[in-house]
Amino acid sequence: MTAPLIRAFVGYVPTEDVIEGVVAPPVSSITADRYEQLVADNPDSILHLLGSAIDTGEGGADPSLFDMRGATRLADMIDKGILEKQPEALYVLRVTAGKTTHTGLVCEVNTCGVDDGRIRRHEHTRSETEELVVDHLNIVGAHTDPVAMTHRDHAGLDALIDEVVERDLPARDFTTDDGSRQQLWRISDVFTLDRARSLLAEIPAIYITDGHHRTAAAARLRARRSERNEGHTGHEAYNYLLTVLFAESELELHGYNRAVMDLGGMTPAEVMEKIDAVAEVEEIAVAWAQEAEPRSRGIVSMLLGEHWYRITWRPEDVPEDPRGALDAVLLQDLILGPVLGIEDARADHRLHYIPGPAGLAELEHHDAAIAFALHAASVDDVMAVADAGEVMPPKSTWFAPKVKTGLVARLINEL
Fold first, then answer.
1. I want to staple 11 with a disulfide (CB 3.0 to 4.6 A). Which of 15, 181, 252, 408 is the partner?
2. Residue 319 CB: number of other CB atoms within 10 A?
3. Continuous segment of H or E residues that includes residue 40
4. Is the separation of the CB atoms in 308 and 302 below 8 Å?
5. Is the pTM of this model over 0.85?
6. Per residue in 260-312, pLDDT tens?
7. Please, what's the b/e burial string for 228-240 (b: 16 or more CB within 10 A of its CB; e: otherwise)?
8. How far apart are CA 9 and CA 230, in angstroms?
């Protein structure tokens, strides 16, 4: 029987009395210095399993030494009941930050979908980073840092999730250090699980939002282990990846703004003349920076000197393909490259990326010679680019929510 793309799993959830200490920020957001502070302050933190994945340098020239300690720590957390084994289940996760609520489904996803196109990406990955994650997974033997993925809205699945939330009390309900409320409902009764399986089977494709390297690494792990396993069936734990799956309407998507630290030897007047030759430029009067935020795609706001300008692309310069029509691509192709000489948007030290949630005031305070504010792409834009087999430009998506590490763990290796 063909293994399903999305399925329930046997997970390990922190017990109610320690979960606030176990759960940590997403690994991708943690620097080595922040990691050291978090683990020093909390002996129960899930981060004790994840040091080499955060590039702490522990273990010297051999980061696997840290991973071996992480494997020992995982077994210890299970033995002591810090992580409590659950029945086969799916989980509803609801994250509430301020007035915003995001609800998703914690599940495991078959990494064969990477090969057959049912799991779609919008970013490139680095082979060396994938290998570090493969080594970590092989040695520690568990997924604790879930990948976030999305799918097109599905009314039936939304209704089932709403039913679970309204009917049942959450298995876990707590607030993290950043003030966000995390609620977790377990779906383990046979009737509701069967309904969920039928609905999940109707989803033809899912899209990675956060966790491209972890997904690619899990696919590598599956390929290697399946080659060594003469009895491989496709249902083994190593075939699957811990995931939180959000419907597209449950996501919030911000862009990244661009700050360029010098004008490449040109004067502001020379830069303005060149930009005016490739787009419509209009100065705008604002009382405070956020008023300059572009209100729709096809418009980019520019800060040059102390003045804000509105840049509008000329229709003949906007291609029909989904990637080429993105504001981040047009900005690079028409201005950052030909006008400012930034040919490599990934490596040029003059180009700084500012997450959209930081606001436009951050651009004014960044000491940039010139800065650009972009309207956020939509989730549908990202899906269209992924469907076309292409990738988004560097630093063009900032998805919310950011899923915490350690809410649920799943084992790859038997303890």
1. 408
2. 13
3. helix 32-41
4. yes
5. yes
6. 999 999 999 999 999 999 999 999 999 899 999 999 999 999 999 999 999 99
7. eeeeeeeeebbbb
8. 23
